Amino acid sequence: MFGVPWPPAVEPHGTTLRGAGRRGRDTPRSTRQRQETAGMHAFARRQGFTLGAALATAGLIPGAAAQGRGGELRIGMTLADIPTARGAPDQGGEGIRWMGFTIYDSLVYWNLNQDRTIPEIVPALAERYYPNPDDPREWIFELRRGVTFHDGSEFDAEAVIWNIEKVAKRDAPQYDPQQRLTLAFRIPGIRTWRRIDAFTVAIGNDVPDASMPDQVVFLHISSPAQWRKLGGWEAFSKQPSGTGPFRVQEIVPRQRAVLVRNENYWDKARIPKLDRLILLPVPDANQRVAALLTGQANFIEAPPPDALPKLRQERMVIVTNPYPHIWPYILRTTGENTPLADLRVRRALNLAVNREEVVALLGGLAAPAQGMVLPDSPWFGNPAFKIRHDPAEARRLLAEAGYGPGNPLRIRFLISASGSGQMQPLPMNELVQQHMRAVGIELSFEVVEWNAMRVQRGKGPLDPSARGLHAINNSMGTSTPFDAFQRHFSCDAAPPQGLNWAGVCDPRLQAMLEEASRTFDVVARDAIVARIHEHVVDNAYWLFVVHDVNPRALRPEVRGFTQAKSWYQDLTQVWIGR
């Protein structure tokens, strides 16, 4: 897929669930329906008054647009704050989704304007990219000409080198520890870089690395000229400049970010149809529902399952699409005082969880996990250990490991109250806690804010801040072999360089990971990755619970949204109808 053109936009045709039994405009509601609706809107007013005041103050509650262009999309995020806008956003994948690929471009992107297949990497700021035929450790990126940053300065090879060095060269004037911390685990393979000419760069690793495009996609290109003009990253974060389809108009921490259409965007097919995009931090699920029902938001992330009947009754559109994503517990297998070093205990944890009950809790908006990836993935393979609900076998394994009524297994997990991709973490964790109790495991939680958990994840389980934690509940995307396995299980991926919080360093697994990274043939690499997955599941390195289906709720006037089978989404084709 090297050097292919950007695919044309398509009309949405994915899994869109509209309210059953839709009524015509003139059909009267029953008295009970009116009372229920009035009660919900009263609740919405109580829950959403702060949000409404913030929007009204900024003049951000507009009328609808017409003719398939314009209007204002107001997204209720699960986050507690606006993600940073320097180029490498914080707040996890949701930060990247709404404050990364909106304002910025990378050298490559994904074909997100379709919803039938897992998106593939395609050209973006690089028109072509390929392994260097003279040195397989490098990839060559031929850059697109005529692209300008939002501040009017030119994009070229110097800008690419400058952006690599902002996170990789500690003595560079533009080096930014915040972006380094946010991005390091996503681009561990970027070890070398050089300018070939004004519009060609080479980016490499110390060894041949087939996953380089999967890493480069997260390197968002900020404007060097804007940084120099403003004198540093703090000022830049308030007036950011990228090459992306949206420009920043205003950022008010913990309240809103206002983005507007970039009329001069280089990809004419992806010039946004929206006039404005408003990002609203609304971590409480009930407040997101309230904001949607009152029109303060017209697009919300992760609606709570118990609100779905009411949302459908009110003609809201519920959109889902299964995609490569796992809601797991990353188990600490190394260091002192961790019973999870015992394979029998790790398998018992996986057998204790009733995943069908978790799916039911979520109103069907999840899929039971049998491993890191979905069973229809080319990487699933045929694990010998079958992940399932088997409490009797869980008790047997625990007894064999020395645990029972007189000596219960006591473990403590770090979880978040909300956050990017965390679904409905509090009720989900409470249910898992019940499942553990049923087999004699005493599970307790330390509940923290999402970003605080990410900070701890970056320090690792042996840091004093971990305070004896046995696992963290951190959802993850698994769209590439690098995302799913390399960054979580490689010996070289210990925090803060990678996400191997568990401390796994398995020689057999490491050999397979290195073989996969050297294999450029996709079919051959898939076969290796399937063996990797078998090994990960058989060793129960994580506690696998469910796969997300990415639920969102939209007001009916939101048009043109195609939900990709990806954590990342493209909003350029969205518009607001009457």
- Unreliable residue runs: 1-50, 56-66
As a percent range, the share of helical residues equals 25-40%
Strand tally is 23
- Biggest sheet statistics: 8 strands, mixed
Question: Could you name the CATH topology of the largest domain?
Answer: Dipeptide-binding Protein, domain 3
Whole-number total of structural domains: 3
Q: What is the rounded Rg?
A: 24 Å
Count of individual helical segments = 17
N- to C-terminal distance: 39 Å
Q: Tell me the name of the CATH class of the largest domain.
A: Alpha Beta
What's the SSE blueprint?
Elements: E1 15-17, H1 31-57, E2 72-77, H2 92-99, E3 108-110, E4 121-123, E5 126-131, E6 138-143, H3 157-168, H4 177-183, E7 192-197, E8 200-204, H5 212-216, H6 224-230, H7 233-238, E9 246-252, E10 256-261, E11 276-281, H8 285-294, E12 299-301, H9 308-313, E13 317-320, E14 325-331, H10 343-352, H11 355-361, E15 366-368, H12 391-400, E16 409-416, H13 425-438, E17 441-448, H14 450-459, E18 471-472, E19 476-477, H15 481-489, H16 507-517, H17 522-538, E20 542-548, E21 552-554, E22 558-559, E23 575-576
Parallel strand pairs: 2-11, 2-12, 16-17, 16-18
Antiparallel strand pairs: 1-13, 3-4, 5-6, 6-8, 7-8, 9-10, 10-11, 12-21, 13-21, 14-18, 14-19, 14-20, 15-20, 22-23
Helix pairs in contact: 1-8, 10-12, 15-16, 16-17
Describe the fold and architecture.
With 578 residues, the protein is an alpha+beta fold. The protein is 30% helix and 19% strand. It is globular, with a radius of gyration of 24 Å. The protein starts with 14 loop residues before the first strand and ends with a strand. The chain is built from 17 helices and 23 strands. It has three domains: 163 residues, Periplasmic binding protein-like II (D-Maltodextrin-Binding Protein, domain 2), CATH 3.40.190.10; 147 residues, Dipeptide-binding Protein, domain 1 (Alpha-Beta Complex), CATH 3.90.76.10; 224 residues, Roll (Dipeptide-binding Protein, domain 3), CATH 3.10.105. Helix 15 runs antiparallel to helix 16 and helix 16 packs antiparallel against helix 17. A hairpin with a 3-residue loop joins strand 9 and strand 10. The chain has an eight-stranded mixed β-sheet. Strands 14, 15, 16, 17, 18, 19 and 20 form a seven-stranded mixed β-sheet that branches.
